[in-house]
Each structure stands twice: as C-alpha cells, then as structure tokens.
Amino acid sequence: MFSARKISTSHRLLLVTLLLFAGATFARAGRARVALPALHFPGAKAAPVYGINAAGAPGDPLQTPGDQTGVEQDGTPAVQLIPIDFPGAVLTSPQGINPAGDIVGIYDDASGKRHGFLLSRGNFTSIDYPGAVATDARGINKHGDIVGTYTNAPGGLQNMHGYLLSHGSFSEVQHPGYLGTIAQRILPNGNIYGCTHNTDFMASMHGYVRTAEGYTAIDVPASMHNGATPDGSTIVGLYTDMKGMTHGYLIEDGEFTPFDVPGSNLTEGWDINPQGDIVGDFRDTAGKFHGFLQTDDGYTTIDFPAATQTVARGINRRGDIVGRYIDANGKLHGFVRTRTRESASVK
C-alpha cells in the first residue's frame, strides 16, 4: 500500500520545485529570429546547430576530454554538450526534443514571467497560452505537436492545466475530477502523458495517459508519467514512496517496476526513446544533482562542464539529450548533448 501522508514537507517542496521547472495561435506569440553563420565540423558531411546563446551566437560544442577530432580513440562518436539560452532570458530550461531536433522548454524573461519556447532550425519562438500568467512547453512529437502547462492564477499546482498546441491552435488538457493537470509528453499518435493534482498535492498526484478513448491514471500516489515508447508499451516516470524517497519507475506491459541509479538517494526518470534508452536525473550523497542516461550497457552520468548541478529531461530516437545546468554564478542554462557521427548521418 502506498501512502502520501508520511511524505515530509521538505520532499513536498522539492517535488514542487522540480515540477515547476520540468517545467489561441502562434500568431499571438513573439518570434525571435537569429541568423546563424555557417559551421563546419572537420571531416563531417553535415554539422547541425542545436543551440544558441544569449548573445545570439551558436553554442560552442564542448567535446569529451582528450578528444580533438570529433571521434573517440575507439572510433565511437564524440559527445558534445552545447549550451542553449533564450535571448534575453534570465533562465532557460529545455524539456523535450523530437526526432528532427526541435526543442521545447521554459524560459523566464527579465521581468520574471515564465514562457514556453520552441527552438527549431536556429529560430526561437515564444509560446504563451492566451490569458495565462505563466506558460511552459514540455514535449514535442515528430509532427510538431507541443504539450505543456499554463497557470491561470497564482496559488499552486491546482491552478496549472495542460494544453496541446497543434497546427497553431491551443486546446486544454484537463483530467476530469482533478483541479490541476500537467501535460508532459506527447507521442506520434497523439497520446499525452503527465500527472494530476488537487490542493493536497501528493495524495492526488497520479501519472496518467490520455488517449482517444479518454484518461487513465495509475493508482500509485505521488507519481508522474514523463515519457513512453511510441507504441506506449513502456512508460517511464517518477514517484515518491511512503518514506519520502523519490524513485524512477518503468511500466512495461502493465507491470510497475521502480529503479534507482546506484549510489543515489533520489532518482527521477524523465523520458525514454524508441530504443528504450532512458534519461533523467539523480542526487548523490553529497546533495549534487546529475543527469543520467541508461542504456543496455548501464548508466552514464551527464554533467555539464563546471556546472554545480545538471539534469536531463528529454531524449529522441537518435540519442540527442536535452536538459539544464546551473553555472558557478547560479544561473540556469539549457543544453543539448549529441554525438557527432550520429548527428551527421541521421536525417
């Protein structure tokens, strides 16, 4: 049996913070166009640009230590970490990436107002739900359909509602019987994953999926569906147990299985690609957050160079990963992690 009553206040506050950062038509949204200079990676047939910085310049690729050619010593592609900053933003937090490399996320402007964003082909588009006091963007599928949340009034997660932005038009995503709903991820077939909320927060937080037939939520309290394989057979998410410990989980063909990064005291699963590769974040015993990638070969830690904290939020079919990091000055930036050879060969 699961119980939400024993979860401590500190863990409630932690989960609120994590969810908030996980966070009409496009004609209502402002577009910031950025002209990018040509980039040529030595020996590559193509060199896609995945991000730009606050000055409007392409983010500099950060190669793995000792790598100068774009290829590791064993012949595997070099990993690059490229920073992403919405122009003029004080905070940038990517949340999802589709097969084409389009990225959606969250940014705060200079006045502190929260917006969603789309980064596609080097252009940023700001996303704002009509009349909302805050908006974020969390997931995008191969068709360009975007899901996220909007806040209609201050006061907590019960005032956050999901939305779908498709073909330039917004529609609401709201689980019946709950005050608040977060829309986190959308599949190619239009199925949407996320979690529900009432004023009690933890007890009413349940992972759900919305299909053409309606909404279905799991009976695990303090749970959140964050991603799924295209056929929906495997779901990844996070939940908090009766002792206040947060774990990742997989639901494979209906079977619920918790998982934890070895040596961690908090693990969150945030996305999964068609190959079954999982990304998320974990907290070590010193209290530092790191991103992780879990594949058939095990766990890989993701840390942006010189960052004090790093988390991973989304992954696409070719293994590109998006997330955010905090620099030494305490500012939050986005990043995309990619492999040179895969980026050059996958269309």
Please, could you describe this protein's structure?
By secondary structure, the protein is mostly beta strands. It has helices at residues 9-21, 340-345; strands spanning 31-32, 62-63, 79-84, 91-97, 103-108, 114-120, 123-127, 134-140, 146-151, 160-166, 169-173, 180-186, 192-197, 207-211, 214-217, 223-228, 234-240, 246-252, 255-259, 266-272, 278-283, 289-295, 298-302, 309-315, 321-326, 332-339. Strands 1-7-6-5-4 form a five-stranded antiparallel sheet, with no helix packed on it. A five-stranded antiparallel sheet has the order 2-3-26-25-24. The longest helix has 13 residues, at 9-21. The radius of gyration is 19 Å and the shape is globular. The chain starts with 8 loop residues before the first helix and ends with a helix. Residues 1-18, 20-71 and 342-347 have low confidence and may be disordered.
Average pLDDT metric: 82
Total helices: the number is 2
The order of strands across the largest sheet is: 1-7-6-5-4
> What is the CA–CA distance across the termini?
47 Å
Task: Please outline the major beta sheet.
Answer: 5 strands, antiparallel
The chain-level structural class is mainly beta
Unreliable residue stretches: 1-18, 20-71, 342-347
Helix content: under 10%
Shape: globular
